Amino acid sequence: IGAAFMNYCKTLKWTPIPLGVGFAYICYLQYGHIKKREKRKQLKGVTPEEGLASPWQINVYKALPFRFTSRLWGQVNSLDVPHMLRKPIYGLYARLFNCNVSEALVEDLTWYQNLSDFFRRELKPGVRPVEQTRSLVSPCDGKVLHFGKVEKGWMEQVKGVTYTLQGFLGPSIRGQPHTETTSEIPEHDYQTSLSIRPGNSLYQCVIYLAPGDYHRFHSPTDWTINHRRHFPGLLFSVNPGVARWIRGLFNMNERVVLHGEWEHGFFSMTAVGATNVGSIGIYFDEDLRTNVPGRFKTGEYYDHHYNQSSNNNTKDNAPEGVQVVKGEGVGEFNLG
Amino acid sequence: STIVLIFEAPKDFEFSFKPGEKIRLGEGISSL
User: Fold this and answer.
1) Collapsing DSSP states into helix, strand and coil, what is residue A219?
2) Which of A57, A162, A199, A286 has a CB 3.0–4.6 Å from the CB of A53, allowing a cystine?
3) Distance in angstroms (rounded) separating the CA atoms of residues A267 and A251
4) Residue A189 CB neighbours (<10 A)
5) Residues in B 1-32 with any Cβ partner in A closer than 8 A
6) How far, in Å, CA of A248 to CA of A164, rounded?
7) A 72-131 residues with CB below 8 A of B?
8) Coil, strand or helix at A270
9) How far apart are CA A103 and CA A92, in angstroms?
10) What is the ipTM of this complex?
11) Tens-place pLDDT, residues A13-52
């Protein structure tokens, strides 16, 4: 056995060379991969986890009086501007925020009595044709921050930065009995409680409106709005940089959730307020008051059910709710 | 300001744009 083993070792004496060369080549390839990976990391910057605000940073940010300054900003901008100053002031705003005034229904800047009027300007008919071949269209002008499936009750405001469906919509949004003692349930169970139809999934889409964008929002599809839920909240900026920095940003901010049904089942559209734009108007909802003075508790909300008595859109014997068609104006963001 | 849409749709539903893309009112946002 010993002799046979020695003979075998003699046959292996040249083997280490190609093995070593092969191993060195693998190391060289791996080194290249690592270098490329590190370079990619540097180009992309920090990972979402590393770039998130810490609790103390959020607390400091919360302490800033954004609600008060936003209301003040709204009041100042509701004051009528002298006729001769309108063109230079609104013109400066339009240049700063890249507004396309030629698309406005009224191009004459002197027509707008104040900056708030100009901010919620109407568009000329036909400048935003509604695609008739698609059943779901964009409800506004803006930039798509994120979209995709909602999984186990979690959503993403930008890639990798999450917020919960339950925190965003609040308890008992659809069908579930609501009691004073309704408490939080596991996120996965919350999504299940929405009773999504077999063969369907839940999706979300986040669209950011920059200061110069058209600030009215329209119906993205034909649907029936049954219910409105108003969450008084903070007025953090919602620009993409802050959305990448603060996890759960949309669950903290002032917002109005409209929810109902479309051809495939559950449908909701939420207007999330921001610094200086905390006032949200819904055209068929005169009772709605947003960004009002006073303290509020986190998670506090006010519900309103739309029915025939408060709805001029529905005909006799029509089902409860406000029926809106694709492209129809639903509401607007206002300064303040 | 931000608009967030949350809705149920068939499992083969697909969005017809990319994150970061500018979009205009009335443009189709899905394959449906």
Assistant:
1) coil
2) A57
3) 18
4) 12
5) 1-11, 13, 15, 17-30, 32
6) 7
7) 123, 128-131
8) strand
9) 17
10) 0.96
11) 666 666 677 777 777 777 776 777 666 666 555 455 667 8
